[in-house]
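Side project, low priority. Logging it here so it doesn't get lost.
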Amino acid sequence: MQHRQKTIALAWVFLSTGIGPQVAWGISGQTIRSDRGMVTSAYPLASDVGLSILRKGGNAVDAAVATTLAVSVVEPFSAGIGGGGFLLLRQAATGDLKALDFREKAPLKATATMYLDAQGKVRPNASTDGFLSVGVPGTIAGLSEVQQRYGRLPWSTVVAPAVGLAERGFIVSNRLAQATRDRLPMLDRNPAARTIFTRNGQPFNPGDRLTQKDLGRTLRIIAKNPQDFYTGEIASAITRDMQRNGGLVTLEDLKTYKPTWRSPVCGSFKQMQVCSMPPPSSGGVHLIQLLNLWSGSKLESQPRHSPDALHFMAESMKIAYADRAIHLGDPGFVRVPVAALIDPAYAAQRSREISMGRARAAAEVKASSPEFLRRFSKKTESTETSHLSVVDPDRNAVSLTFTVNLNFGAGVVAAGTGILLNNEMDDFAIAPNTPNAFGLVGQQANAIAPGKIPLSSMTPTIVTEGGQFKLAVGSPGGSTIITTVFQILLNSLVYKMDAGQAVSAPRIHNQWLPDRLRVEKDGFDPSVLKALQAKGQVVEERSPWGNANLILVKPDNTLEGAADPRGEGSAVGY
């Protein structure tokens, strides 16, 4: 059924965009190759929209923006214009890498104790359900900023395909239908969400058509003036609904929201440069930390899924996530020791803690103290979810991850706008040592404060070699994003897998707390799992996670790409 839906989707795009049969198009998990440009995303219609923009003469930025807006329509449970994200851009002409932070922010009325009761205890679901869980959205501000600065086509041209998808509708997939069922009680409680995402309180079924007329109208307004989202009719509609329903986002929050250009965080790995997002995302810092730890392991001669290789990965992950819990936060509010955490000498020191014969319990793994970190550098510091990657014929590249956080975000739609709102406030440490929805814990560095950006795990990544583009990769998955991208990079750069193999290979994940080594069910030989348990790893088999995609360049300058078989995405090229 899933493949049949993708075939129907492809036929629709051929008819509506004029894409011809010379297109290379691959279902999830399948490696495709092309000579000129390529788009990978979590949904076939969105990938095809991006490719149509490339074929109209748009560059990687134009195609990435169009794809992002299309994802906002066809994958509303994972990401959308009511959320935020991060983007990494590499310009081929100069080799410059730029990072754009359009993450949500805490409203100006937010307080550190807003989710606690009178006794100081966390109120259940207060940070995940409803209007009080909503952060100030940044997606439209970020997309308009990058497109107007670096895009080639008119803004209205890149918005138009998403308008069509919203107004004409699309066929509901298995994944969307399941996501709706999972979040149905919350969606049913909000009248605007109930009207759009249910049929009189009942979930849509696979094969049904979903239209979003209000969202189409909103996108038409944005196509004329994206700033309307923050200062005009759309902003007024959002804030009116906030006031009626106890939310904190005000017109002042929207008017003052601005995306932030940041310097990517970069490190060396096997004669390559790996660059990703800096704080307030923890993704780049801990991706490079994990690669540094791996570089000193001398395990490359071992099979990818040998017990020793997996054990070392798991113990490295514990170190990284322990550091994350203490040191990472919004750099506008706290000093984040980025340079020290990504220093290879720091990784060499921490790797001495790893015993190849015994797994350490989480209580034995500590974050480094600020005093200890200062030894390594004196430099000045510089969930659901969806990811997409785009490479154009000039080899400009975009790696973009964005989200509304949990499944269907806050579960509420701003009345009259069609905009599903995020529940990104749950990514703050709402109380010390209190796990969020992904089981992550945090301390003061990630405490709630007005205007502060919650810590993220999003890890859009671009790798270069000898000054030339090598690959673009990323994934959704909440706390598992960093380890997913880490393993895909090892698959591609160390174990020389093709794109499809790299995103398909079974994964592990350890985030320090809870003290478990997650492994994908049926992904590993039972003898390997027994060997890990013999080392003391607390193995927990879980359903597959993540929905990554990858584009890489081959030695002959052709492109190779794939979307994760765990999702419904596709890679397309020409």
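Brief comment: The chain is about 35% helix and 15% strand.
Revisit when time allows.
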